[in-house]
Design brief:
This protein is 69% helix and 4% strand. The chain has 197 residues and is mainly α. β1 and β2 form a beta hairpin. α1 packs across α4, α4 crosses α6 and α6 packs across α7.
Length: 197
Amino acid sequence: MNEVELGETSGARRVRRHDPERRTRILDAALDVLVAEGAAGITHRKVAARADVPLGSVTYHFSSLAELQAQAFDWYVEQRTAEFESLFTEVEAREDLIEVLVELVQGGPSRRRSAVLGFELHLAALRDPALRALTQKWTRDSRAVLSRFTGPEIAGRLDALLEGLIMHALLATEPEPREATHAAIAQALPPLTGRDT
């Protein structure tokens, strides 16, 4: 089905070719804007420019800025949840798990981008109950992955520790030594039930 949009200057209707990836590109662009400018800085126009689509295309897919932001955060959590789970597929021993968790805290630019989005989501969720439900589901899913190695109680404490370590890493003017991050996680992590230590 072709997408019909209003021309921005002439008001004339024009038909754009079928573009099944456009909605996803808009969501990805919205995430880029959220990283660069935060939830307070997102606008339809900035997202359209980042996605390289007409402004009318953004409002065609998302009726309000609140809907665009909520759908972008939902898209981020969906991707992040799948990525998080995949990190643990080869964990067999306690040291494997520690190394994966250290990398979560100390990772490079892609990890930093993800962390910024996570904290932007949590900040927005303080004021939006619908987003709070999304953050709670995300937390449950993350802890469920961790609990496969640690049990639910330790998974909850470890998840909170990781969030704190990631926030400190984002805000630090000097990078935390990898050894210090390793020590903090190792201290919080007992032997893994039913696995090698």
